[in-house]
Amino acid sequence: MSSYKPFAGTQQGLVLAIDIGTTYSGCSFSVLDPGVIPEIRGVTRFPAQAPGGSSKIPSVLYYDSAGKVRAIGAETLLESNIEKAEDEQWAKVEWFKLHLRPKTLSTAALHINQQILSLPRDKSLIEVFADFLKYLYSCCQTFIGETLLPDGKSFWESVEDRIVLSHPNGWEGPQQDSMRQAAVLAGLVTEKEDRIHFVTEGEASLHFCIDNGLKAKDEGTIIVDAGGGTIDLSAYSISNSGTNSFEEISRSECCFAGSIFVTEQSRTYFTDKLQETSFQEDIPRIAQCFDQTTKLHFRDSNEVSYVKFGRLGDHEPALDIRSGRIKIPGTTVASFFQPCVNEILKAIDKQRSDASKPVTAVFLVGGFAASPWILLKLTEHFEPLGLSIKRPDTHVNKAVSDGGVSFYLNHFVGSRVSRYSYGVQCSVDYDVLDLEHRQRGYCINPIDGRRQVENCFSLILQKGVGVKEAQEFRHSFYCVSHSRLQSISTEILEYHGINEKPSYVDVDCGIYFSISEVTPLLIVADISKLSRMLVPIRGTTGLPYFRLEYDVVLLFGRTELKAQIAWQETVCSISDPISV
């Protein structure tokens, strides 16, 4: 474990990390005792699990026709619940996490859209998240109450907890806001409480790797969190600020190439092979058995694989079925993996090429990382190129939840790379010497009479820039009005195109920023007090107007984007303002 320091607080506390995965979910926690070095522990007991069960449960829920939760997690695997679900027509919800994916990732994920099951009628995504969060939270409460001595129940009731929620690298403000709403709906926190913290799965995995053998080096390391739905990649190196302080050296990536897509490839194969046969109704069962057994152990394309799904009497040699087992050539199983392998290799190559420092190692974590075939394919591809492929010698499927607790305790990452360009749509003063201004033309502001160019994009932070935690990015703007304004608002937009310095919002609209593609961040400031201090100005039209100069400030150093509007109440003078 990394060199944790004794907890410096004066009161007992609790940190709880909840990792809701596409296929499986888990929780970890740490009790904070003043002067004591914190220990990260996992929740290892859930309802309906056999003794000594897994530290994770399926991310699955059953709802009845009235929208009431009837089974969650390991409970959905009980034969009695499966039978009731069929008899009473319960709605099964799985892979619900993928419904929350950013719209900007939809194009890259069109091939999964039809595979994601729809939500129950009259049940919103936030409500489903809330139901699952509430269940996991109660499991944590029960586990801590039963395992902490001398009295875990009274401990839980006496301390205030901090909750860390993890999410894929490609998720940002809108997804975090939805998860926060779900936490409020679930009763974990109130709207006014600031006890929810977010961490990307890539950064949580880095903290897990540091705690399990990753050494601080000058060279770069790529962390690959291979999960059920997404593959999250992040590249880091040791920073100049000290031991165990890391900086991001490339934009984090998120691709849809998790283990569920291997299972879906197998389902297509079984459907093509068995449709219109006596085993057609067994296809879902065969795919499920492949997912839970054969897929996990596959390691050699030269050997035949088997899926045991039925009874000894299930026998059809023409379909390669004998004694309730279906035989699959090893090369065919390898083909199920190949699309995911290709995506992972491509993503790692991109991280290497974009990194600001040479990359010498790849750390593989997450449930999909336990696959011998994935490890073999990455090793075959990258070791000849000088990259070492490593997998921590512990439960890699606990990386995100354990790493979430470590993230709260340590904050090993001091600098992150901006994934996109951020700015504001605005109008700028017309410059006759600017060729593009002359080509676009200008309009006259009816309030102050200035000549202005519309549909401009004021860049505040460029993509690919390293950002320290306390670093601010700001730009100056102004607004004019005939009346005294009571508030001002500004939308922060993302640019997803290839232009390094985008300038106009009506260029490349489809990949620029669009309400249908990116949810803008709207910030609003109450300026009623300041407005009374402004001195009216006589405009060219002869009518008086008021001019307010202000800054838009962005903070990107943490895993949550923060935006502010700032102004000076005594001296309203900011250089080169722009009319918004």
What does this 3D model show about the protein?
InterPro entries: ATPase_NBD. This is Actin-like ATPase domain-containing protein. By secondary structure, the chain is α+β, with helices and mostly antiparallel strands. The protein folds into four domains: 13-195, Nucleotidyltransferase, domain 5 (2-Layer Sandwich), CATH 3.30.420.40; 202-256 and 337-417, ATPase, nucleotide binding domain (Nucleotidyltransferase, domain 5, 2-Layer Sandwich), CATH 3.30.420; 260-336, no CATH class; 421-566, no CATH class. 27% of the residues lie in helices and 28% in strands. Strands 10, 11, 12, 13, 17, 18, 19 and 23 form an eight-stranded mixed sheet that branches. Strand 1 (13-20) and strand 2 form a beta hairpin. Helix 3 (125-147) packs across helix 4 (152-158) and helix 7 (260-274) crosses helix 8 (283-297). The longest helix is centred in the middle third of the chain and has 25 residues, at 330-354. The chain starts with 12 loop residues before the first strand and ends in a 14-residue tail after the last strand.
